[in-house]
């Protein structure tokens, strides 16, 4: 595990952008999975400045690692978020976008293996210790890509989440197969969970704790998120 600490959100975002561009600049096909949410917003803003309308990155193929379908909506929440944050602003060719859906999730691991696997994956950390869609006390560390049916009684389920009945996610085994895993976290609110996930016992109650075992994990934090670590 390699831990990099930027002074602030801007600095950690610049670090993350540079590492991703290092992969994207290869002269071969690059398979990359990226995350939605608030933490990577500045990373994507910085990437768009470089990637938009540039033929130098036509080799990069993009994958979402989880998806939440919504009734009456053509695409799920995750890919819609990624399109808004990065894929559309960067004018990514549709042929380079490979959505994970509830219809194709059983084929995800095989499909990735056929194209050489994921070279790099950018993920965040939930305040409850989840990563991707691997939720506390729901995930099984032996899971490949899998589907979860939501009953509304799950410990992590919030009634305000709306009418969500299911979701799919790459499981721990699938994530462990990624060649380079990059975890980004910012802010003091997640400092305690950063310490728990990275230094505590490996348990399904804190799903992200399994990431300690990844052979090529880079953690990028701002000083606030790193404040409880002994570095």
Automatic annotation (TrEMBL):
<dbReference type="InterPro" id="IPR006148">
    <property type="entry name" value="Glc/Gal-6P_isomerase"/>
</dbReference>
<dbReference type="InterPro" id="IPR018321">
    <property type="entry name" value="Glucosamine6P_isomerase_CS"/>
</dbReference>
<dbReference type="InterPro" id="IPR037171">
    <property type="entry name" value="NagB/RpiA_transferase-like"/>
</dbReference>
<dbReference type="GO" id="GO:0005975">
    <property type="term" value="P:carbohydrate metabolic process"/>
</dbReference>
<dbReference type="InterPro" id="IPR004547">
    <property type="entry name" value="Glucosamine6P_isomerase"/>
</dbReference>
<dbReference type="Pfam" id="PF01182">
    <property type="entry name" value="Glucosamine_iso"/>
</dbReference>
<feature type="domain" description="Glucosamine/galactosamine-6-phosphate isomerase">
    <location>
        <begin position="14"/>
        <end position="212"/>
    </location>
</feature>
<keyword id="KW-0119">Carbohydrate metabolism</keyword>
<dbReference type="InterPro" id="IPR052960">
    <property type="entry name" value="GlcN6P_deaminase-like"/>
</dbReference>
<dbReference type="GO" id="GO:0004342">
    <property type="term" value="F:glucosamine-6-phosphate deaminase activity"/>
</dbReference>
<protein>
    <submittedName>
        <fullName>6-phosphogluconolactonase</fullName>
    </submittedName>
</protein>
<dbReference type="GO" id="GO:0006044">
    <property type="term" value="P:N-acetylglucosamine metabolic process"/>
</dbReference>
């Amino acid at each position: 595990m390699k831990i990099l600490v930027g002074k602030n959100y801007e600095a950690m975002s610049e670090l993350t952008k540079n590492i991703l561009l290092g992969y994207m600049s290869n002269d071969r096909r690059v398979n990359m999975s990226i995350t939605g949410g608030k933490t990577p917003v500045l990373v994507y803003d910085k990437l768009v400045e470089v990637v938009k309308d540039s033929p130098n990155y036509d080799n990069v193929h993009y994958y979402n690692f989880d998806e939440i379908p919504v009734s009456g909506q053509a695409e799920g929440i995750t890919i819609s978020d990624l399109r808004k944050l990065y894929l559309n602003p960067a004018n990514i060719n549709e042929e380079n976008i490979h959505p994970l859906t509830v219809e194709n999730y059983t084929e995800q691991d095989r499909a990735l293996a056929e194209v050489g696997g994921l070279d790099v994956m950018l993920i965040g950390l939930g305040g409850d210790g989840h990563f991707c869609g691997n939720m506390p006390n729901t995930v099984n560390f032996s899971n490949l890509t899998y589907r979860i049916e939501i009953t509304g009684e799950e410990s992590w389920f919030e009634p305000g989440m709306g009418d969500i009945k299911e979701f799919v996610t790459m499981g721990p085994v699938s994530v462990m197969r990624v060649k380079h895993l990059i975890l980004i976290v910012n802010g003091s609110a997640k400092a305690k969970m950063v310490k728990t996930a990275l230094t505590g016992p490996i348990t399904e109650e804190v799903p992200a704790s399994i990431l300690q075992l990844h052979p090529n994990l880079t953690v990028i934090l701002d000083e606030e998120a790193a404040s409880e670590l002994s570095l």
